[in-house]
Task: structure prediction
Amino acid sequence: MRIARLLCIPFLAAGLAFGAIDGTVTNGTSNQPQPNVTLTLVKPGQGGMRTLGTTTSDAQGQFHFDKDEPGGGPQLIQVDYQDVTYTTLLTPNIPTSGVDVRIYDATKSPAVTRIAQHMIVVEPSESQTAVNETLIVENSTKQTFANSELGGIRFYLPPSADGQVRVSVQGPAGMPLPRPAIKTNESNVFKVDFPVKPGETQFSLSYVLPVGSPETLRGRIVNIKGQPPGPVRFVVPPGVTLESKDIQSLGQEPRTQAIIYNLTGSAYTVDVKGTGSLNQNNNTDESDADVPQVVERNPPVYHHLGWLIGLALGILALGLLILYRSSPVRAAGE
Result:
């Protein structure tokens, strides 16, 4: 019996490490526990999101999931509150007890946000011109800006792009998510319906202009009324120059050698000369660390393989030690 109890110790420790999930839902606007909120525990996989359980926070904002699925990647706690989804990431190496799930009250007023930065990267080639726009929207309040009618941002898309644009959005401490560009009543103006939570949210736009059209690039900056605008910068690779009365040169960025221009108004007509690509200049640069790479990885269980082997060897060694201590051969030798 003693041997059986000792052999069970590692398994009990493993069970505690993979216990149920519990914590508190906190309203970041009021800084108080939030009762009666529905939480869903999901696990991402090759087949999409798989629901592991659903629960509701009690009067003190506390919640508990009985069913946990340890190992094999992260789990997510999702909360839908005032038409905004909040996600808390649980990785295998963090505690699953006392989890803080934070939500915020929503507002339809764009005044709680501002455009902190707007960057337009222009990369012309012989066959086309790639344009990548990045807008960083800052929310320094304790409310989430959520207004489906206005959208999180609005932007102008040149007619020669033929309405084809790829959009991805990354919220605070989140992952980039693809979002649709929604056409508005204004000509060539689109919106992205995405809530802007407290912190910084990055909107990335990518589109291609056909050959010939970028010789003169025309556009305008579109802002949501009540959302303070920020500076707009044009960025081009070495070998490419922009000429216009609507911009002024800010010089060259030392690391990438990119040339940066500042937009002085809200509309622009810019002559583009030369060809080049920033990616080609950075293939061996350390800046590639910021670019997601496609890599070959072992299955998730390999992350725990060393721990599992160590556990098995520890159990085997413990069993052999106990058997040796209780064996007649050792007793006779003493």
Remarks:
- The CA atoms of residues 14 and 24 lie 24 Å apart.
